[in-house]
Amino acid sequence: MVVPSLKLQDLIEEIRGAKTQAQEREVIQKECAHIRASFRDGDPVHRHRQLAKLLYVHMLGYPAHFGQMECLKLIASSRFTDKRVGYLGAMLLLDERHDAHLLITNSIKNDLSQGIQPVQGLALCTLSTMGSAEMCRDLAPEVEKLLLQPSPYVRKKAILTAVHMIRKVPELSSVFLPPCAQLLHERHHGILLGTITLITELCERSPAALRHFRKVQILRLLRILGRNHEESSETMNDLLAQVATNTDTSRNAGNAVLFETVLTIMDIRSAAGLRVLAVNILGRFLLNSDRNIRYVALTSLLRLVQSDHSAVQRHRPTVVECLRETDASLSRRALELSLALVNSSNVRAMMQELQAFLESCPPDLRADCASGILLAAERFAPTKRWHIDTILHVLTTAGTHVRDDAVANLTQLIGGAQELHAYSVRRLYNALAEDISQQPLVQVAAWCIGEYGDLLLAGNCEEIEPLQVDEEEVLALLEKVLQSHMSLPATRGYALTALMKLSTRLCGDNNRIRQVVSIYGSCLDVELQQRAVEYDTLFRKYDHMRAAILEKMPLVERDGPQADEEAKESKEAAQLSEAAPVPTEPQASQLLDLLDLLDGASGDVQHPPPLDPSPGGALIHLLDLPCVPPPPAPIPDLKVFEREGVQLNLSFIRPPENPALLLITVTATNFSEGDVTHFICQAAVPKAPLRLKLRLTYDHFHQSVQEIFEVNNLPVESWQ
């Protein structure tokens, strides 16, 4: 006997009337028990009603897997009411992961051959939703026959099913290619739209189909037909120009047509004037009141900025205006495009706009904006002073959001600009006196004050307003940094080193500095404590060498366009060093004593064996410089992945300055005709030798691809 249960409408009302989640679960569990009992009793009359309730429960997120076999029974039924619910259940409960989906192949084949249009429509919808590759191969002939049926209702669904089949099994393209030419003559808009989608899929996956449809003049299809084909692109130029100039944009449909026209112009080998027209269309989109249209325009211009830079530059004022958008996605796109538009001719004006945006932009955009400004300034800076001012403004405005290498880059920039030392130290001192919360700014300021504190006190900088600073104010400011709860351990290290360096640059008594140094000898931070102890030992035991040890830092070499010039200077310095006198033995002994500052009294120090008397030998042994090793043997590249034209290669290199380090570069290449989007490559090193685990996710040919594989055949040279 079938256990009585609720009707679907009553079940919905009762679930919606539940006041708590626990009450909802109780209602659903109770009804699911009735549904299970009904399925066990095999009631054929009410089976479709029970499955309909189960599907509603499934849509609420509750388990409904026990209804899969009931879907098969309803699909096999001769009643339309049963088939309708059965096919709906198959679309919701079955997919390729369940073997049960193969059991409905025969039922779908029978329904497609019956000639009853509603039943054929149900079967086609189900096949296009959850049809696996095996089902597509088995049912392709039936779908091909329905493409030319007289009923537009069936033909439209058959076309969309064919699209799904081609995406699942690209080799079925030859099956659906012949009917497409006839379908293009249809007047039914739904059939035409579906046919264009089908032809697009065919052309993307089949070179034969691409050659076959070269002469078809339909806007969305032109993008594929003219890609990398000079003759077809030239034929399309006039047509695209007419569409671009004659389309009415008073309605959103016209904007959609124009956008498709722009994409087509940019993808084919179009004329230069036509590409400028496409960029101007996107520029007009930026003035549209619809935010979605403005976002599409910014995204498209960002794609074109590399290939059509001068054309996009004409719309720079409009792009900059978009920085003030309240919508976060729009302002982010405008920021990315603005940074891409910066060049040597507009860098001053663009930096003013970007710095103004940095002061008021949302917190989640500050890091990107600050990083972009620093990179653009490093690349296009007209003068060193302008470069320094720009970085200082970023550090003052958003110091906590800058890249990790900003401090090192600025100290290196200041160190290499000798004529700007006095200007830089005064600017940084003023900024530090106003705000000690921006840690990168505090670190650069402390470093600069320690290096060029004598220039700060001299007051001979004519480029800024006169500033009278005495020694006590400078020391008090650095002590304030040391004592601030906002200072990081690294910042305190900068400040402590600055105080130590000022002990050789100030004319007054060093007792105050010595007291501060001795206090931090018992600091809880180990690195800061070690630094303070070493400085205190330098005061107590090696005070006669303090001035030489705390001299100004030499300029560190950096990679960049000035590398050749710096290399020449280093050669000249090397030639001068050859003519320098040989250091005497006592001087070498004093330098070596620095290595044992913490080993106790100077009388107990054990000296190493006599040094090589060659010129500069003492310094070489002091720094323990190794002999130049032979260059490492080259490591062959390794191909680790290839699928449908997408290839992944690994290349290996050991830096000469650190042969123990292995740098692995992953290069992804797309040799296919389809675009690869949303590409993500993740790597992991398992706790086992000589293995690398990779995970790839990307979209290719309108399909989501995910691959997880292991590389266990790394070249021997990479680990020996």
From TrEMBL:
InterPro entries for this protein: Adaptor_Complx_Large_Subunit, AP1_complex_gsu, ARM-like, ARM-type_fold, Clathrin/coatomer_adapt-like_N, Clathrin_a/b/g-adaptin_app_Ig, Clathrin_app_Ig-like_sf, GAE_dom
Domain of life of the organism encoding this protein: Eukaryota
UniProt key word Electron transport: no
Name of the protein: AP-1 complex subunit gamma
Domain GAE: 633-720
UniProt keyword annotations, A-Z: Cytoplasmic vesicle, Golgi apparatus, Membrane, Protein transport, Transport
Protein species of origin: Pan troglodytes (Chimpanzee)
SMART domains (UniProt xref): Alpha_adaptinC2
Main location: membrane
Compartments, record wording: Cytoplasmic vesicle membrane; Endomembrane system; Golgi apparatus
Membrane topology: Peripheral membrane protein
